[in-house]
Amino acid sequence: MNRKTLVLPAVIGLLAPVLAACGGTDSGSDGGDAIVVGTTDAFTASKDAPAPLDPAYAYDVGTWNILRQTVQTLMVQPRGDGDPVPEAAQSCGFTDSGNERYACKLRPDLKFADGDPVTADDVKYSIDRARSLKADSGVFALLSTIDTVETQGERDVIFHLKTADATFPFKLSTPVAGIVDPDIYAKDKLRDGFEVDGSGPYTLKAEVKNDALVSAVFTKNPDYKGSLTVNNDKVELRNFADADEMGTALENGDIDLTTRTMSPEQIQKLSADSDDSVDLVDLSGLEIRYLAFNTDAPSVRSKAVRQAMAQIIDRGELVSKVYGSQAEPLYSLVPASVTGHSNSFFNKYGDPSAAKAKSLLEKAGITTPVKLTLHYTTDHYGSATKKEFELLQKQLNDSGLFDVDIEGAPWATFRPAEQKGEYDVYGMGWFPDFPDADNFLAPFLDKDNFLGSPYANSAIRNNLIPESRRVADRLSASGSLTEIQDIVANDVPVLPLWQGKQYVAAGDDVTGTAYALNSSSTLQLWELGRGVSG
Fold this sequence. Notes:
Layout: E1 5-8, E2 35-39, E3 43-44, H1 61-70, E4 75-76, E5 85-86, E6 89-94, E7 101-106, H2 120-133, E8 146-152, E9 156-161, H3 168-171, E10 202-209, E11 212-220, E12 234-239, H4 243-251, E13 257-258, H5 264-272, E14 278-293, H6 303-312, H7 315-323, E15 327-329, H8 344-349, H9 354-363, E16 370-377, H10 384-398, E17 402-409, H11 411-419, E18 425-430, H12 442-445, H13 458-469, H14 478-491, E19 494-507, E20 510-511, E21 529-530
Parallel strand pairs: 1-14, 2-12, 2-13, 16-17, 16-18
Antiparallel strand pairs: 3-11, 4-5, 6-7, 7-9, 8-9, 10-11, 11-12, 14-18, 14-19, 15-19, 20-21
GO molecular function: peptide transmembrane transporter activity
Subcellular location: Cell envelope
GO cellular component, one term: ATP-binding cassette (ABC) transporter complex
């Protein structure tokens, strides 16, 4: 058998890579050695972020995919995508015509991994805790439409919302809504370190060195009750310094699968090679990359400067020279495959033009060249990020209108500095919390946004976001969503660059891999098993 590059169809009807693999689509068998999954994600505890795995704090694709294995949520996104389905809940649904009252009934006899019962009061405690702690990661904003949480007896939870929110079931499927034990998770303090306790399909044993997680072993939780079928007894998530090191481990048989992030060169090599022991999976992705601006910073406070950058940057060249077929130019925060997408940036700026950018700056009285530093993370989005920023620097400087430096930093340094407003312009990626256009807009534009951005547009916050959430039929919300995207293209608080595909390499004896990753970047380790190589 030659190496297979499988292209799985997009099933997006509605944030992004983490894991998939090939082999069979059957669920495999329980037992056997641990399935070892490689990742280049870095998990670090620091003074600025001492509680990376607390559900009330965690807000990146890597930490969420640890929590999804261990901390149960009322709802879960299904194996084949689509609307979320009950998980810790037996049933959930809106009980009014206005999408403002949402009621859930817990499954009977739910238990935390230590044997303590899971009750409606624990759900209320967990949700209220995340809302009141207001961690500086900004993850609590996902729960911003909740007014109050009510319990009735041991199993019934009612959410009273401030405004209609058709996306609320999706939000209850995210780790910030995870159910934690009040005896372990303090009400007024985040839980430091790498310990995680919940009622999910696995328990976690973490190996930590120098305040960094180097290995996470997930063992099947015998007390788990939920909607998921666990097809293995143990999975190990092993951290690697870079894609090359991870690739070598796969070639040597030390790991069974690679997750994010593989390098473009590795993907090209795997696509061309013939090998009957390792397969490459090609998946449609919802990952996006963008530049973000501190709109209060003197260098980019003028909208004209940000517009000029939008007018100069050549996304086509960026994609072709750095990522090849592994990415596509993006002209909105909302990916092209998501309902509500509009090519707002292309509609406004068209093809790259230094002459048009010069006119924008001249009309605003901006002295050129404009001096800027573009900041990027060296270890969070893959090894190609540096090359990407070198090309962005070249494009801007070649226009003669900018004098740009670039500066990289590891994620553990980069993210806190960005949150504190220390960077004027910086590169970020986004893997959706749930696959809806709202989740590519509100996290960047609403109050308490993920970036901590000072940019505020009253029409977006007070009218358009609430208006779009009232509509259960997301196609019918396109008018409001398009208007938001047009405002963003004009004001440029963020500058979308590209959306990417997802690639994973795996040993061909690993089964269940067609469902190991859904479109919201959810790592579904429970789907993996071992079967007959073929």
